[in-house]
Structures are given as structure tokens and as C-alpha cells.
Amino acid sequence: MLNPLVSIIVRTKNEDFWIGKCLNEIYNQDYQNIEVILVDNNSKDKTINIVKKNFPKVKIVNYKSKTFFPGKALNLGIKKSRGNLIAMISGHCIPKNNKWLKNLVKNFKNPSVLACYGRQEPSDISEPNDVRDLTYLFGLDKKIQTKDPFFHNANSMIRKSSWKKNQFDEKIKHIEDRIWASLVLKKGKKIIYEPEAAVIHFHGVGHHGNLKRVSTISKILKKSKPKNKKQHIFCIIPLNKPIKINGKYLVEKTINDLKKITAISKIFITTTDKKIGKSIKDKKIFILQRDKDLQKNFLGIEYILSKTYSRHIKKFKPTHIMVAEEIYLNRPKNFFQNLIDNFDDNYDSIIPIFKNRSQNIWKKDDKGDMHPLFKTSLPSELVDFRIYEEAKGLGTMIKAEIFESSGRETNLLKFMEIDKKNSLTTKEITNIKFD
User: Which CATH class is domain 233-428?
Assistant: First the structure.
């Protein structure tokens, strides 16, 4: 079994935010002898459209039951598979690197191993209790299980031969993986926990607890490395198609502001435009053409930024990353320097916010019911506004080790308040002037 065909079963239901990222990483794996089978449970969003348009090799299996039984969904996918090894991953899990699949497969050289599951790491948009749960459950030490039936199908692999003898229970709504593992272990076989086969999983495996207590634990778990004595700050400006006004690149205003900051040692422009490098030349500025596999809009800017960082920027060993977008030309005076001066290493990142002075704000839930987030009958001049909006495109700063996995997003935030007028984009400003 040198290079067996691996059938990868991906389960989805309304995963249009995640599925493109998940499949993009699957097809970027070092191990390429694969087939991908997507089992979709009545998605109402753009999940299927994204898959059909961008990943035509994926075989789609429709699971139309109103009540979701995870075991049945997996059995449906496996019945359509051709591989001797079956990998299973949730549509909202993202392989952490291109060794994920290879690190699962290598454990099946031992014929007594019938199953393997990998590490699940929280993302930086995970809620505090999920950070706690995933960090506690999925450690860094490899384990061989002969009695412990813990097993998790969000990131796992089994032999198809063992599945044929023991299919997943189709009548239970939860822990189908653990029940299946119990049956395997009774026959004297082994389950491997492989921490090197890691995925990013934004939600945890348990229930929410006391949020105040969990938040404290989360901060302890997410503590980064000790602060470096000297900051080594890089800035990234993400551009898809750079904007030109009166024959001049709009981004030049942002570049000129950044070049004044001595603490910023390098400025990277990541773009799909091949002409901008001819107009913008400076020893401090580096033009990065966006990698071909990162040119799809459905991937999202944070994902693209994190991958660009790990592939091209990490090697320069920055301590902090700043991200600024070209469309904000009304930044406060000394904004970038103030962002640096206000950074606090007790937090992962700092982000600008401004007050939303809308008097009545409502949220619609999944059932279509409306719930008030902020409501008052007082005139606006008497209202103590407590609703804020992010303006992260204006400029954010984040620890480099956090940026690699999150690409700017994090929950351990410090905020820097600005006036709403400073958050205006080029679409909202009529007279644009360059310094």
C-alpha cells in the first residue's frame, strides 16, 4: 500500500463561507491520489454553485433528509467511493497545510490500525469556549488508542474494509464516530491520534459554558510567545485590480503615508495587476503577484492574506503585520503611527472602530424573527450610542504568529476609536486629493 487511492468525504450544509477554502486546501495537498465526494444536506446558500463552478472534479451526493443523521450522510458518500482509505472532513474545516492528508495516510502502514483522526485547532474567530475545548481535546502528543473510543469525524480516516463490516449508525444524531470506534476497539484493533494531520475548525465539539469563566481560560490558552524587545513591522496592502484616478494609482496615497513610518520596514502589495510594479518603485516596497490558486473571490481576503503571508512573507520573520486598504483616503492624522503606539501585546491585534449613530438596530434570526440589538425612542442628541462598527480596512495591526492562521481576524482585540468621517471610502468621498 505505497500510494493508495484516498476517497475524501466532505459533509456540507450551507457552507459557502468555508467550502471554497476547504476544497482549495484539499486540492493543494502533497498527496494527490484522491477523489473528492461532497455529501450535501439541502444547502440553501451558494455552497453547490461554488463547488460546481470552481471544483468540477468533485462528485456531489445529495442527502435530502430534513432530519440530519451524520452516520447516514457518511454512509451515502462512502458507498459512492472507490478508495481503500476513506478520509472524512467537515465542510467548514480547513486543512492547516499541504501535509494534512499524507500525515493521515502514513498511519495505515500498520495493518492493526483501522482508524486515525487528526488535530483540530481553533481559528482566531472561534469563540473563547471553543478555543478552550479544542485546545484541551486535541493535544500535541501522538496517541495509540486500544481502549479509549474517542474519535472525531470532522477530521479522520478509516479503512474501507473496516467500514464494510461496521457501517456508521444511521439512527443517531450525534457521536456516530465514537460509537463506531467502540466497535472497532472491541475487536482488538487500534485507533491513532495524529496531531500532525491538523485542520482549522472554527467551532468546538462541546456546549457553551460560563462565558466569563471561559473567556479567562481562552486568554491563557491563546497567550502568544513573549514580546520581542524590538518590533519588526511589515505592512500588506491587498489589491485585486488597483484603482486609477486621473492616471494615478489610488494606492499611492496610502503608500506615501506608510513610508513616513520608520517602524514599518517593508511594505508588500499583493495584487493580480502586472503593470503596477512599473509605476511604483521603492526599496521599501515589494510587489507580490497573487498566486494562481488564490485568485478566486470566494476564498475571502483574510484567507488570501494568511496564505500569502505563510508562502512569501513569513521567511523575513516579522513580529507584527499591518494591513491597510487603498480605498480609505480620509484616515485621521498620524493614524498608522497611533495604531503602532497603541498596540498592546496583551491582545492579539488592534482594530479601528466608530460609533454607529443609527437609533434602532434589529437583527433577523435564522427563522426570520426580528430581535432588537439597540432600540430607543429618545431623540438622537440624547442617546448614549453603544453600537460600534469596525473599519478594519482603514488599518489593523496583528501579531505575526496569529496572522499566519487568521489573516487579520481575531477575538482577542483592542480597539482604537475614530470618527465616522475617517472611515469613509472613495465611493463616499467626492474630492480625492493626493499629497
Answer: alpha beta
- Asked if 99 and 196 touch (Cβ cutoff 8 Å), the reply is yes
- What is the pLDDT of the chain when averaged over all its residues? 86
Residues in the chain: 435
User: 97, 110, 215, 91: which is closest to 154 by C-alpha?
Assistant: 91
Reduced to 3 states (helix: H, G, I; strand: E, B; else coil), residue 342 is: coil
For residue 54, give Cα distances in angstroms to 61, 94, 231.
17, 17, 40
Any residues with CB less than 8 A from the CB of 365 and at least 6 apart, and which? 371
Residue 16's contacts (CB-CB under 8 Å, 6 or more residues apart) are 43, 45, 46, 47, 49, 50, 298
Look up residue 279 and give its amino acid. S
Residue pair 260/332 in contact (Cβ under 8 Å)? The answer is no
As a whole number of angstroms, the distance between CA 314 and CA 305 comes to 12
- Domain coordinates in residue numbering, the chain: 6-221, 233-428
DSSP state of 299: G
pTM: 0.75
Cβ(315)–Cβ(400) under 8 Å?
Answer: no
Within 10 angstroms of residue 410's Cβ, the number of other Cβ atoms is 22
**H or E stretch at 256:** helix 251-259
Q: What pLDDT score was predicted for residue 396? A: 94
The matching CATH number, chosen from 3.40.50.1820, 3.40.50.300, 3.40.50.11740, 3.90.550.10, for 6-221 is: 3.90.550.10
Distance (Å, rounded) from C-alpha 49 to C-alpha 77? 19
The helix, strand and coil proportions of the chain, stated in percent and rounded to the nearest 5, come to 30, 25, 45
Q: Per residue in 153-205, pLDDT tens?
A: 999 999 999 999 989 988 888 888 888 998 888 888 999 999 999 999 987 66
Q: How far is CA 334 from CA 273, 425, 433, in A?
A: 29, 18, 17
Q: How many angstroms separate the CA atoms of 128 and 161, rounded?
A: 39
Which pLDDT score is estimated for 131? 82
